[in-house]
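Lab notebook, bench 4. We co-purified these components, and the gel suggests they stay together. Before we commit to crystallization screens, I want a quick structural picture of the whole thing.
Request: model the full complex, all chains together.
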Amino acid sequence: MPRTSAAAGGAGGSRGEGSPTARRGSFEALGDPVRRRLVELLAAGEQPAGALVDALQAEAGISQPAVSQHLRVLRDARLVTVRAEGTRRLYAVDAAGLDVVRLWLARFADPFAQPLDALKTELARGRRARRRGTSPREEDAADRAG
Amino acid sequence: MPRTSAAAGGAGGSRGEGSPTARRGSFEALGDPVRRRLVELLAAGEQPAGALVDALQAEAGISQPAVSQHLRVLRDARLVTVRAEGTRRLYAVDAAGLDVVRLWLARFADPFAQPLDALKTELARGRRARRRGTSPREEDAADRAG
DNA sequence: GGTATGTATAAGTTGGAACTTATATACAAT
DNA sequence: ATTGTATATAAGTTCCAACTTATACATACC
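Here is the predicted assembly.
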């Protein structure tokens, strides 16, 4: 049998949606361009499903049910949250799912850490200057690849 | 006509890594758990394709061609680089593809920014202590979206 | 040369995901 | 109650991507 689905997914008490196991991981959810676009649209702030439908219909000619299904996947992946207001469903970005991605990325040396390194260096200088000359510690050179 | 494929479906690519357009995006590439695992394995450092094949075969019972195909996708997505050494192909993580993901994530408020804020605070304290009362330059407050 | 090893490509199959249309559900308003 | 609006679900179709086996392409070794 091919197609071994290795995705485990921690249930961890997802009671609201009523799904016993997480259908899809954050990466799988973000693997689709339409869903990525939805999250992008939500980056501007909380939005009703209808607005998202309109946007996607205009951009890609996608039907309302399709958008709704995508939103469900995003919801299951903890990438968005829903809030009912009357007959409307207000969606918003959920940090939880994005954290999963960020955490995964943290395993690798990130070039964006450079400004952080710069800050660390600055911090070190400040500390050094503050205490007026001390033993030259390596600080935390960490892994500087290349 | 469903299924609007946003990706350019260029055939061409006989040989030569220099593809004009990326067949698949970084997110699409990372959407697959097997490919994510491959990148994870490469996080430990440069590895020959054979080692990756062995690992994936042991973990998920995946064949050598399957791994090779996955590596190609990762290569196209600039997530890994290859280096020929004799008959071996040494793969390594490529920052380029990961940058794309990180850059996309940067659009959203990241809770991991807190340690950076802490550093900034520390830095400010250090600077304050260092100058003992000087003209207050704004430095680079950057964009702090509240 | 021949043979073995390491890796990539060719060709073909299949399961599932991303759609579709049709319908259900929920609330609002007349 | 009826009609309208907003969203979700059901059921079904289609197409692609992740696999398979078989083979080509290198390089190394004898």
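The interface with chain B takes residues 4-7, 25, 27-28, 30-33, 36, 40, 43, 60-62, 93, 95, 98-99, 101-102, 104-112, 116, 119-120, 122-123, 125-127, 129-130 of chain A (CB under 8 Å). Worth comparing against the SEC data before the next meeting. The longest helix of chain A spans residues 113-131.
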